[in-house]
Amino acid sequence: MTDEITRYSDTDLAEFKEIILGKIKKAQADLDLIKSAYMNDLNNGTDDTSPTFKAFEEGSETMSKEANSQLAIRQEKFIRDLKNALFRVENKTYGVCKVSGKLIGKERLKIVPHATMSIEAKNLQR
């Protein structure tokens, strides 16, 4: 008979759930900010300036929109990963390494609540 713990307690899962919900709320607010920056005209009043400056401004605007688009994509993936973690909390499989089947350390989960692998498994993946 083994004394190894195979899942986190309901109390631990409730604590992780609060952490995840807080991260989702912040991540969603950040995504909204990124999207609003992406949708913004960014016209900065260059209509009456020299054509050269206007060309630089338009190039900068395009780069900024591309960067914001990439940020938005990453943020959406982060939110999706957090929601998947929330699902694992609900079905009580949260915190179990998908490679080893052992529990992922609490400190790691508090820092990276959407983690699906222990540090050991992650290092072996490299």
UniProtKB/TrEMBL annotation:
InterPro entries in the cross-refs: Znf_DskA_TraR
Question: Which GO terms label this protein's molecular function in UniProt?
Answer: zinc ion binding
Q: Mark the dksA C4-type zinc finger spans by residue number.
A: 97-121
* A Pfam family: zf-dskA_traR
Keywords associated with the record: Metal-binding, Zinc, Zinc-finger
Is Protein biosynthesis set as a keyword in this record? no
What domain of life does the UniProt record list for this protein's source?
A: Bacteria
Residues covered by the Zinc finger DksA/TraR C4-type domain = 93-122
The protein here is known as TraR/DksA family transcriptional regulator
- Which organism encodes this protein? Flavobacterium bomense
